[in-house]
Amino acid sequence: MTRTVRVPSGGVFLATDVHLPPTGPAGHPYPAVLVRTPYGRRAHRHEARAWTALGFAAVVQDVRGRYGSGGDWRPYTHEETDGAATLRWIRGRRWSNGRVVAAGSSYAAYCALVTAADGGDGVPPDGIVAAVPALGTGETAREPSGAERLLGRAGWWAAHGDRADSDPAALDRLLSKDPGLLAHLPVGDLPARLGRALPSWPGIWKARRTDRIVRDAPAARTPLLAIGGTHDPFAADTLALWRAWGGPAGLLLGPWGHRLARDPGPGARPEHRVDTGGLTAAWARAVCEGSPPEGRRGAVSLAGTPHWFPADALVEPAAARRFPLAAGPLDITLLYGAGFRADPDRPVRSDELRADPPPTPGEPADRALFVTAPLNRDTDLLGPAAAELHATADTPAADWFVRLVALDPQGRAEPLALGTARTTRPPGTWSTVTVPLGPLARRLPAGTRIRIEAAGHHFPAHARNPHTGEDPVTAVRLLPSHRTLRPGACALLLPVTELRGTDAVPDLFQEIRT
After folding, report:
1. pLDDT tens digit string along 60-110?
2. What confidence tens digit (pLDDT) does each residue in 12-67 have?
3. Cβ atoms of residues 222 and 248 within 8 Å
């Protein structure tokens, strides 16, 4: 049975679909799953039916200002208040047994997580499922370094910003007409080129990362199931959330992008096509029956193998092995670019894995390029990686992007890792810049080479640093930046480990739900 109701919160009414199980004793109360989404509650009807078939009431709500809900749409502004009001409302229904799991993916994961702070009169939900969590305006708009995630935010805001409905293909249509759309300056004037008002666009870039959800996580006591993908742009946030959570915390980290199993990355196997819905339901059932999983546990897939390994197999950052970018155990060779030119008018592209040497002898390279010798054995990487660049720039501001690419024996390239750091210091200052590369979970077969690129841009995924010290969002003047590395003082920090099939998780459902 499904009906649409209006849940009051702060003077507005929130459009909410309530789906109840089709069978059961008269007056039988149910546990509930709450999904609050900006993407349209009706898109969740299939998911809601699956929950009701398992004996849950499924409550799916449009967030304030979206689709059927009243009020103004201001991302990340009202979710804590509106989530609390909706939890109170659910627990006051005759069909509710008082048990509620708040769940969601991406923005909806944020909506679920903020209910842990105050689920209504100080009562949080009984459990939280947060998949590929998008943890705030600043957290999604910027890398931890401060580098601006231009392409992702332009696409999201063009599709969903300052409107009651969505147009997912909006940016793609505009790029087909003007492939150079994102290169126009200043970045802050993008709405004028989108052809519609987008008054919230400047506020995205004024927001700074506070990492409030992760910072406050140690105080949480509600059981958490965090689901993420190693190729998701928010993978590091998912892992940090799980590590910091103060209550029972489960982790499922697959070889996926932002759409999880529908977005498999390099090395994904059929065994990684997990029924995340069924797994989530089993976990929610245990929570609502009063027997939530204990402690911190979970499973991480190792791409390149069919296996899932216990989350405690993740190599801690302090235990990562250091490999100098000059010979060393990996026999790393600098191909070119110990001195390179980061030119924002000719930036290194994020949508190309090709790395060509300078076309003209004597012309400066656009990046430093290193490559390892072929690996002499299968190599397992499981955990956060980083790079250390001992470097200088002749400009006061500089971004440093490091990209790892796996090259098979035939030379085919697959993305492995990406990270960025931002420096602001007097020109010519030498320093060691640490570039976090996010979590890796990959077995590289013998014969694979790792290509290491250090560059000043990664466009259009990230806005171009103008190198003048001005804000990249408002700048209209761009300067080239000359960079110099000392390869012997640079290094890769890799989470190398040895994993055997006998160490793998025998039952993924059991690992997550108990």
Report:
1. 999 999 999 999 999 999 999 999 999 999 999 999 999 999 999 999 999
2. 999 999 999 986 555 679 999 999 999 999 999 999 999 999 999 999 999 999 99
3. no
Check if the beta carbon of residue 227 is closer than 8 Å to that of residue 276.
Answer: yes
User: Mutual orientation of helices 276-288 and 45-53 as an angle, nearest 10°?
Assistant: 50
- Give, for 442, the enclosing helix (H) or strand (E): strand 431-444
What is the torsion angle, in degrees rounded to the nearest 10, for the CA atoms of residue 50, residue 53, residue 56 and residue 62?
40
Residue 362: Cβ within 10 Å count: 5
Q: In the numeric block, which tokens belong to residue 450? A: 């790792």
* Enclosing H/E stretch for 53: helix 45-53
Is there a contact between 340 and 457 (Cβ–Cβ < 8 Å)? no
Sheet strands (E) in 216-307: 224-229, 249-254, 256-257, 260-264, 296-301
Residue 14: CB partners within 8 Å, gap ≥ 6? Answer: 6, 7, 8, 61, 62, 63, 64, 69, 70, 82, 85, 86
Angle (CA) 397-156-16 rounded to 5° is 140
Question: Quick check: 453 and 369 in contact, CB under 8 A?
Answer: yes
Residues 6+ apart with CB under 8 A from 241: 113, 130, 133, 135, 213, 214, 217, 224, 226
- What is residue 253's DSSP assignment? E
Instruction: Give the span between the Cα atoms of 105 and 107, in whole angstroms.
Output: 6
Give the whole-angstrom CA distance, residue 50 versus residue 46.
Answer: 6
Tokens representing 58 are 């499924």
User: What HEC string does 25-49 produce?
Assistant: CCCCCEEEEEEEECCCHHHHHHHHH
Using DSSP bridges, classify how beta strands 321-324 and 333-336 pair: parallel, antiparallel or unpaired: unpaired
CA distances to 349, 450, 467 from 455, in Å: 10, 16, 13
Does pTM surpass 0.90?
yes
The two tokens of residue 214 are: 């992760």
- At residue 24, the pLDDT reads 55
State the amino acid at position 59 in one-letter form. V
Amino acid at 68: G
